[in-house]
Amino acid sequence: MKILVTGGLGYIGSHTVVELIKNGYETVIVDNLYNSNEHVLERIEKITGVKPEFNKVDILDRNGLEEVFKRHSFDGVIHFAGYKAVGESVAIPLTYYENNVAGSLNLYELIKKYNVKSLIFSSSATVYGDSFASPMKEEYGLGVTTNPYGTTKLMNEMIITDFAKTNRNISAVILRYFNPIGAHESGLLGEVPNGIPNNLVPYIARVANGTLDYLNVYGDDYDTVDGTGVRDYIHVVDLARAHVLALKYANEHNGCEVINVGSGTGYSVLEVLHAYEKACGHKIAYHVTDRRPGDIATSFADTKKAEKLLGFKVERDIADMCRDSYNFTVKNPDGIK
Ligand code: NAD
Ligand code: UD1
User: Fold this and answer.
1) Are 102 and 60 in contact (CB under 8 A)?
2) Does pTM surpass 0.85?
3) Which residues of the chain are modeled with pLDDT < 70?
C-alpha cells in the first residue's frame, strides 16, 4: 500500500514514516522544509534501511502537489503539514489560516479528484478548548478555541467531517493528539524546536543540557495534585503507531471518526520535571512564575475509543519519554544536521 505523508520530515511525521515502513507500507513524503531538513531522510534510512521518495513541495502550491498525485496512486494520505506555534498564530493569524486551512483544502480537493480512500488528519486536544472536564471524551464535540492555531484545527475537523459526509468513498480518521514528547530510541529522530521552546519538555531538555538556566513553571496555584498544570504526555513513537492503526481502520471502513490519542494519564509539570531529573541524572532548576494566559489546569484523554476502534494502547511511560528525549538532546546538540 502506498501512503502520501505531508509534513513527513517533521517531528511526528518522521516517526510515523518509520512505523509505516516497518509495517510494510510504501511512503511518499511531501514537505516544504519550513520546519525540517533533508537530513531527516537520511536518518529515516539509517533506522529502516529504506529511503522514501521525498518531494520538496508546498501544499499551498496546488499544481506542484497535483504532480505528485499524478505520478502515484495513493491508498491513503496522512496529513501532518502545518504550522503549530500557538503564540505565533496569535501574532500572524492570516498566515496560519492560509497554510493550515487553504493548504489543506488543496490537499482534500486532490484526494477527491484522485479517489484516495483514506485520510488521517493531525488534530489536537486544543479543540476541546477550556469548555470541558477531563478525561476529554470525543463525544464532547468541539469546544471554544483560545488561539488561531487551535481554530485552524477546528476548521479542518469541520471541513473533513462535511467532506466525508458527501463523499461516501472516503474514510477519514481525525486524531486528536494530547501532548507528544520523547524521541526515537535510536537518538536519530526527535523534536528540534526553533529558538527558545514554548512547550514544556523541549524547554526542560534545554535546561537539562545546560543551554537554558532554569524552567519557568507557569503557576502553582491550580487545583491539581501539586498546583501545577496537568497534561497527558504520549511518547511520539506510540503516537506514530496510532497512525498505522488508524490507517488500517480507515482502509476497512467508510465515514469519519474522531479519536483521541493520549495515554489517559495526567502528569503535573513538577512530576515531569522530576521524571526528567531521573533520566538525566541531575537536578533541574526551576522558578514558579505567573500562569500562562490560555492555559487550563488539567487535560487528559479518555482513551476508550482508541482502544475499541483501533486496538491502540500506549507501550511507553513517562520514564521512557524523558529517557528518549534526553538521549536525543545529548546526541544532537545542534539539531538534526
Ligand atoms: P513539525 O513542524 O515538526 O512538522 C510539520 C512539517 O510540515 C514540517 O516538516 C514542515 O516543514 C512541514 N510543513 C509546514 N507547512 C507546510 C506546507 N505548507 N507545505 C509542506 N510542508 C509543510 O510539527 P509536528 O510536531 O510534527 O506536528 C505535525 C502535525 O501535528 C501538525 O499539523 C501539528 O499541528 C499537529 N499537532 C502537533 C502537536 C505537537 O505537540 N507536536 C500536537 C497536536 C497536533
Ligand atoms: C500547548 C498549546 C496547545 C498545543 C500543544 C502542542 C498553549 C496554551 N497550548 O499545549 O494548543 O496543541 O502545546 O504541543 O500553548 N509549562 C511550564 N513552563 C514552560 C512550558 C510549559 O510550566 O516553559 C506548563 C504549561 O503551563 C502546561 C504544561 O507545562 O501546564 C504543558 O505545556 P505545553 O508543553 O506548552 O503544552 P500545552 O499547554 O498542553
Assistant:
1) yes
2) yes
3) none
